[in-house]
Amino acid sequence: MIRCVRIWTAEDGNSSFEEGKIDLVGGARGDILSGNVPVTSISFRETKSGGTFDWHDAPARQFVVTLSGTLDFVTRRGEHFSIRPGDILLAEDTTGGGHSWTLVDDQPWRRAYVILAPGVDVPFIPDQKHA
């Protein structure tokens, strides 16, 4: 399974997050895969090591696919989560207090921004909470 962290705007206007995965099922040649997800565009970006970005909202509902770099994300509630190479961020906090991030290793953050089509369902499955 592919690790995915979903971040969204909660009712109080602050960003919240949950960890989960992208839902994959059996396919040809023994692969596991998701169904097609309609998107409007893809772009690529690189930030040099040591980079940071102060409080901001996601500009659009999007997948952010990390190719290199390890990041610490923070919400205004002080909650932290990490994103590592191979992880997907499902960014849905397009309003509210937003989040910030800091690169925490010596690698540049190379990523792909995949803008989702309006109203599309995504194959995100949240992890089960432990009681």
In a few lines, what is going on in this structure?
The chain is mainly beta and 131 residues long. It is built from no helices and 13 strands.
Description:
The protein has no helices and 13 strands. The protein has 131 residues and is mostly beta strands. The chain has one domain: Jelly Rolls (Sandwich), CATH 2.60.120.10. Strands 5-12-7-10-1-2-13 form a seven-stranded mixed beta sheet, with no helix packed on it. Strands 6-11-8-9 form a four-stranded antiparallel beta sheet, with no helix packed on it.
Number of strands: 13
Under CATH, the homologous superfamily reads Jelly Rolls
The average pLDDT is: 95
Radius of gyration: 15 Å
CATH architecture: Sandwich
Sheet with the most strands?
7 strands, mixed
What percent strand? Answer: over 45%
- Name the helicity range: under 10%
Number of domains: 1
Between the first and last Cα atoms, what is the distance in angstroms? Answer: 23 Å
Tell me the strand order in the biggest sheet: 5-12-7-10-1-2-13
Query: In DSSP terms, counting alpha (H) and pi (I) runs of 4 or more, how many helices?
Result: 0
Order of helices and strands: EEEEEEEEEEEEE
CATH class: Mainly Beta
Helix-strand makeup class = mainly beta
Q: What characteristic shape results from the CA principal axes?
A: globular
Spans of at least 5 consecutive residues whose pLDDT stays below 50 are: none
CATH topology: Jelly Rolls
Keywords:
131 residues, seven-stranded mixed β-sheet, four-stranded antiparallel β-sheet, mainly beta, Jelly Rolls, single chain
